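Record 1 of the preview.
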Amino acid sequence: MKLALQYEMQRPSLDDHLVLQETMEQCILADEVGFDYLWFVEHHFLTGFSASPCPDLVYAALSQRTKQIRLGLGVVILPYHHPNRVAERVAMLDHLSEGRVDFGTGRSAPYELTGMGIDPRDSREMWEESLSMVPDIWQTDLYSHEGKYWQVPERQILPKPYQNPHPPIWVAALQPSTYEIAASKGIGVLSFGSSAPSSLEPYVKAYRENVKKAKPVGGFVNDQWASSTLGVCLEDDREAKEMGAQSLKNFFGPDRPYVQGQKDVYAQLLDKWGGVPDHLKANFSRYVEDIEKPDEAKEDILDYSGGSAIAHQIWSDLDADTLCDRAVVIAGNPDSCIEALKKHEAIGIDQMMIMMQTETVPHEKVMESIELFGKYVIPEFKKR
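->
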C-alpha cells in the first residue's frame, strides 16, 4: 500500500504566506523521507478552512524542490476550467515534474460552484463532458469538439504530457454512485470523507469487479482505490490519538464545508465510522435503534424525533480510542499507525491519503509526524 499526504492547506490563524511556507517545508520533508504521493485540493471561498485555490501553481514550485514524490491533483474542478486549459496546464506540470503527476477530477459543491457563476445542476454533465475531452486532447494531434458546454474548432493543443499516453486519471468520490461511475469509466477512486475500513470494504470489492468491465475514458484503466482520512504520528501514543481525534472532529464539525447543507450528516458519519459503539449505546439506548435503522427509515426519524441532534451528540462523544481502533483516524505512535494502516490494506486499499496539517495540529507536530512516518511507518509498507 502506498502512503500519501493530503492537503487543504490549513493552519490555526489566517496567514496565507505562512501556511504556504509551512506546507512547502512539510512536502519537501515528505519527499525526503519516502512518502509516495501528495494530494492537494482545489477549493475557493472557504476562508480559514482551505487556502488551496491553485494546486498546480504550488506543484510547479514543488516539482523543482522534490525528486520522487508524485504530485496528485486532488482534484481539478473541471466545471471551472476550459478543458483546453486543463489539458495544457496538467501536461506542463507533468513535464516540470518529469512525469510525476496524477490527474484527479471532480465537480465541487453548490457554495463554490455558484461563486463561479455555475449552476450546480449542470456540474455533473460539465464534469463528464470535460472528462471525455481532456484525455482525447492529450492523445490527438489536431483536436476538435462540439459539445453542450464547450466547442473547440480544430486546433493543435500543446504540450502533450510527459507520461505516455497521459497521467493516471481519478475522481473524487463521497457516495457509492460515484464509485460505480469511476469503475465504468476506468478511473481511480479518491474516496474522501474518512471511513472505517469495515464500512468501505463492500464498495471496494464491488469496484474491483466492476472496473474489469470498464470502457476507459483515457488511454488505459486506472484501477486504483485511494482512501482519505486524518491523522498524526507522535512518540507519545496518547497525545497523538487525542490530537488525531480532535483534528477529525474539528474537520467535520457543524457548518464546516464537508458537512454544511447535508441532510442527516451525523447519522451518515456514524455509519461511515462504524456505527454506535457499545459503550455509548447504554447512554442513548432509547435513540440508538432509530439512528441505526436502514437509510430509507432515517428521514422521518431524524427530521421529526430529534434524531439528528442525538446523532450529532453520539458522534461528538466518540472517543479517540474508538476512532483509532476502528482506523477511522491514523493516529498514535508508529506502532499504532502501522496497525491502523494495515486494516485499510487488508480490504484492498491501494493508497492511504492522510491529512496531518489541520487547524488543530501545529506545524512542528506535523513535521515530527512526517519524520516518524519516514523512520518507522513507511519502511513497514515498502517491504510489502
